[in-house]
Amino acid sequence: MHGATALAGGVILSLNAGSSSLKFALYRVAGDTLESLLRGQLEGLGVAPRFVARTAGRTLADEKLGAGALDHQSALDYLLAFLQRQFPGLVLAAVGHRVVHGATQYMLPVRASATVVADLDRLVPLAPLHQSHTLAPIRVLLERLPAVPQIVCFDTAFHRTQPAVARRFALPRTLTERGIVRYGFHGLSYEYIAHALPALDAGAAAGRTVVMHLGNGASMCAFSAGRSAATTMGFTTLDGLPMGTRCGALDPGVILHCLTELHMDAAAVEHLIYHESGLLGVSGISSDMRTLEASADPRAREAIELFAYRIGCDLGALAAALGGLDAIVFTAGIGEHSAALRERVCRAAAWLGVELDPEANARHAARISTAGSRTRAWVIPTDEEVMIARHAQAFLAAEPCGAGVGSTAG
Ligand code: ADP
Predict the structure, then answer these.
(1) Is 62 a catalytic residue?
(2) Which of 11, 146, 313, 392 has the fewest Cβ atoms within 10 angstroms?
């Protein structure tokens, strides 16, 4: 029996673990396509957990759970129990996961095993905000549902097509050879956009596009014919744009100054640049764009201004890497929902041929540039979960026989 046959009608669970959330989606395999059964998230883990699940626009659950009680492991247990209640006797054909860092060793989706998890665990220092959280559900499921195949997808993988010059730091070659290179992240989101773009703008899909993934984490990617040519994040998820609490690109001399002159230790510097900087650090108010946009405090304005300014500068740099620009795409929480931020970015990109249609932008239309705009501007909601499920489906379909189909979800 071929893997594709074994998968038919099967159900794939997508898990996307963040620092304080676990997003999930459930799909039924219908031929080559995936039928969405439900999706949702457990958010506020460790602080004020809340569970939300929806199907076809209908809310199935919206519950506040005991304050602080839920960590990533118990969140997964909660989810599995919920799925069993919704679909008694549910059999999972596969579980797909997003893992932030695969380094040079893992460039393509891989089946989870104790060895793979141990390899990926060694990369925790490269993405301390995320890697261990994304590994937690894999570990739990290897134990609880050992017969269910788990397919791990990497945020770094989409960027494997970049030319060497875009990946290299100007450091001695011995460090480059040890894997100290620019990897890039948000790959599943970019891959989703790369798949969605041709239907909207065939010219941009075949040409030069800069995609802006603007959420709590934020990065930008230059697409050449739908493939990653350059990106703003680098060796870790710190580089590039300022983010909710991360500083983005920083003169490395600042780190040395913190260590030698301010006598901070490495842990304090790590906390500073991952948790106390970005929109939160500049505003002193919040890491959340909605809060900043609603604030009359001039520091909130300055934080937004800096965010937009840096996006504009990096847009110029990525357009230079592409040798021109046919389109830009906004995605993720801020990119999809903040008309004000998009307006700032588009206006600053007038020199690159972007002409904003303010009315289309205000109503969050898909195309927010005028009909005559030389460079088109699009808003495309991202969907990392369906990308994960598609990878799991493709991975198992390519296997010679359907493996592991047959364990209940709880
Ligand atoms: P994550 O990286 O955690 O997945 P998201 O992609 O959900 O983050 O993006 C979160 C960001 O999106 C927050 O800064 C939030 O304030 C912002 N955001 C969400 N909705 C809106 C909105 N309507 N207007 C402005 N910003 C928004």
Answers:
(1) no
(2) 146
CA–centroid distance for 289 within its chain: 17
CA of 256 to the centre of ligand 1 (A): 32
Comparing 64 with 410, the larger pLDDT belongs to 64
Q: How far is the CA of 359 from the centre of ligand 1 (A)?
A: 21
Q: For 30-104, where are the alpha helices, taking DSSP H only? A: 72-86
d(CA 64, CA 49): 6
308 lines ligand 1 (CB under 6 A): no
pLDDT 10s digits, 230-281: 999 999 999 999 999 999 999 999 999 999 999 999 999 999 999 999 999 9
Element (H, E) at 7: helix 3-7
**DSSP reduced 3-state for 157:** helix
**With a 6 A CB cut-off, is 333 part of the ligand 1 pocket?**
yes
Q: What token pair was written down for 73?
A: 């492991």
pLDDT tens profile 183-218: 999 999 999 999 999 999 999 999 999 999 999 999
288 Cβ closer than 6 Å to some ligand 1 atom: yes
**Across all residues in the chain, what is the average pLDDT?**
92
Distance in angstroms (rounded) separating the CA atoms of residues 214 and 193: 13
Q: Which residues pair with 212 in a beta bridge?
A: 220, 330
DSSP string, 228-247: EEEES--SSTTSSS--SS--
Q: What is the predicted pLDDT for the residue at 69?
A: 66
- By CB neighbour count within 10 A (0-12 exposed, 13-18 middle, 19+ buried), where does 298 fall? exposed
Quote the DSSP letter at residue 195. Answer: H
- The answer, yes or no, to whether residue 408 has pLDDT greater than 60, is no
Is the distance from the beta carbon of residue 270 to the nearest atom of ligand 1 less than 6 Å?
A: no
CA of 217 to the centre of ligand 1 (A): 10
